[in-house]
Write a structure and sequence with these properties.
Blueprint (H helix, E strand, L loop, with lengths): L2 H27 L9 H4 E5 L4 E3 L5 E6 L5 E5 L3 E11 L8 E8 L7 E7 L8 E7 L8 E4 L9 E7 L3 E6 L2 E7 L15 E8 L19 E14 L4 H5 L17 H13 L1 E4 L22
Antiparallel strand pairs: 1-4, 2-3, 3-14, 4-13, 5-10, 5-14, 6-7, 6-13, 7-8, 8-9, 9-15, 10-11, 11-12
The chain binds 2-acetamido-2-deoxy-beta-D-glucopyranose (2 copies).
The site of one 2-acetamido-2-deoxy-beta-D-glucopyranose has 6 residues, from loops.
């Protein structure tokens, strides 16, 4: 090797090393696992502190609704993609008219939002879970299912997986709803705005139970729901969507196996839709006057 060739080679190696270091830095700057499991660290109470209890170790929290007020808390950080798992025990007994909302929202005028809403019932279980998605400020995408267990007896895990390819709602790891990114076909998809995690318990008796026919029976209150052992494994918003969208190995949510449902997930998903589905906006021809939203004509499972 001549001297010149060697200098040239070193230059290349230096450039390579610098870019490797730089890539590594990028990776480190993406904080993805953020949950500490301590409600006092990851969330703050945004509504009625007097109606919120947190255990001394911070690992359990409960919300109360009475005639005076509902209550709620919200995450201190915002996120763009990842997975949130929350363990919830719902309001027991006659919960008609109450609604527990557990959702991710960007809180913007053109907001993006991913909603779980638990709708109370006079007889307690079966509980209806309503899910909805706002993209670019528009919703009207409600689905409803019956839960296949009594959600007031024990904690169960309610999760959202959200990435550039799909949004999957899960109950104890079973997918109950799938919303695919069909932005290339003109269907709005939440993919730019960071969202915070919010949970609140409130009076929804104008609509929640049998379209508002069953009102809250205050003599059955106070109504209490509890939360524990959550996990947030998501991309913390740092002002630049590029970090969370990148196909780097730290961004696990964009990996191939999280881009579609697995075979096993698909089987469970079909089971939920076949035996537990109560309402699907994509079948509500009357409401949309035979002009169903565009995503309704696209494949459901792939
Ligand atoms: C908090 O604890 C107090 C005292 O035990 C109880 O009266 C109240 O209902 C609890 N509130 C919630 C939200 O669990
Ligand atoms: C309430 O529970 C009863 C069973 O006890 C069920 O038949 C009914 O459909 C439920 N109603 C709603 C609105 O979930």
């Amino acid at each position: 090797m001549t001297n010149r060739a060697m200098t040239h080679c070193f230059k290349h190696m230096r450039a390579l090393i610098i870019s490797l270091l730089y890539l590594n830095l990028l990776r480190i700057s993406v904080a993805s696992v953020v949950s500490t499991g301590n409600f006092n660290n990851d969330f703050f109470v945004m509504w009625a502190p007097s109606h919120v209890n947190t255990s001394t170790d911070g690992r359990e929290r409960s919300l109360k609704l009475d005639q005076e007020s509902g209550s709620g808390f919200t995450s201190t950080q915002m996120f763009l993609f990842g997975q949130i798992d929350m363990q919830i025990k719902l309001v027991p007994g006659n919960s008609a008219g109450t609604v527990l909302a557990y959702y991710l929202t960007s809180d913007q005028p053109n907001r993006d939002e991913i909603d779980f809403e638990f709708l109370g019932n006079v007889s307690g279980p079966p509980y209806i879970v309503q899910t909805n998605i706002y993209a670019d400020g528009l919703d009207n995408r409600e689905e409803r299912i019956y839960l296949w267990f009594d959600p007031t007896e024990d904690f169960h895990t309610y999760s959202v997986l959200w990435n550039l390819h799909q949004i999957v709602f899960m109950v104890d790891s079973i997918p109950i709803r799938l919303y695919r990114n069909n932005a290339d076909k003109g269907v709005a998809y939440p993919r730019w705005q960071p969202m915070s995690i919010k949970i609140s318990l409130w009076n929804g008796d104008s609509w929640v139970t049998r379209g508002g026919q069953d009102k809250i029976d205050w003599s059955k209150g106070p109504f209490i729901a509890s939360f524990s052992d959550y996990k947030i494994d998501a991309c913390v918003w740092n002002g630049n969507p590029r970090f969370c969208r990148a196909d780097s190995s730290a961004n696990w949510w964009n990996r191939r196996r999280f881009r579609t449902l697995t075979r096993v997930q698909k089987r469970w998903f079909k089971w939920v839709r076949k035996y537990h589905m109560v309402y699907d906006y994509c079948q509500d021809y009357r409401r949309f006057q035979y002009n169903l939203p565009k995503e309704c004509s696209l494949p459901k499972y792939s």
